């Protein structure tokens, strides 16, 4: 912690917006009074990026002539969110000793929702079967942490002793819903 700081507060805020539903924001605040210094931080970053693709495949016989067809259209949405926050308090015991306590949380989700309708066709482009696969993931994580620090600065410039402790806990989920349908065309 910097010495000879004046009491008061300061802060910084920023916001960003981009294409494909991308946005972010950050807020950092600092307050100092007497022997206390309180710092807070929060950050958010998110995007919903749509993607599309397709496959139109011609299956061929050994002689190279077409035998059947496969068609698939793909629709994907990247749904990602990342957040982090921190609160820290510093207490100056005297000119040589500072105690700090901080709590941190980081959380987010990285999910790619996708839909893939497809069909198979014979040589005459008559539908023989079709279906669809939809994937809806539920991928989330949370990391929480607690820190306690002690810093002692000796009278001789450049010499200090520090104790740094931390405890963290994580939680992850990689669940998803998969739905696949397959239909055979009726011959008439």
Give the overall silhouette.
rod-shaped
- Report the structural category: mainly beta
Helical proportion?
under 10%
Number of helices: 0
State the total count of DSSP E strands: 7
What is the averaged pLDDT score? 92
Radius of gyration, in angstroms, nearest whole number: 29 Å
Intertermini distance: 82 Å
The tally of structural domains comes to 1
| Low confidence ranges | none
Q: Bin the strand percentage.
A: over 45%
Say what oligomer this is.
Answer: single chain
Major sheet, described briefly?
7 strands, antiparallel
Polypeptide structure, described:
This is TonB-dependent receptor. The chain has one domain. Helices cover 0% and strands 82% of the residues. It has no helices and 7 strands. The chain has a 7-stranded antiparallel β-sheet, with no helix packed on it.
Keywords for this structure?
single chain, 188 residues, seven-stranded antiparallel β-sheet, 7 strands, 82% strand, rod-shaped, TonB-dependent receptor
Q: In a nutshell, what does this entry contain?
A:
By secondary structure, this protein is mainly beta.
Topology:
Elements: E1 8-18, E2 22-33, E3 36-60, E4 66-94, E5 97-122, E6 127-153, E7 160-184
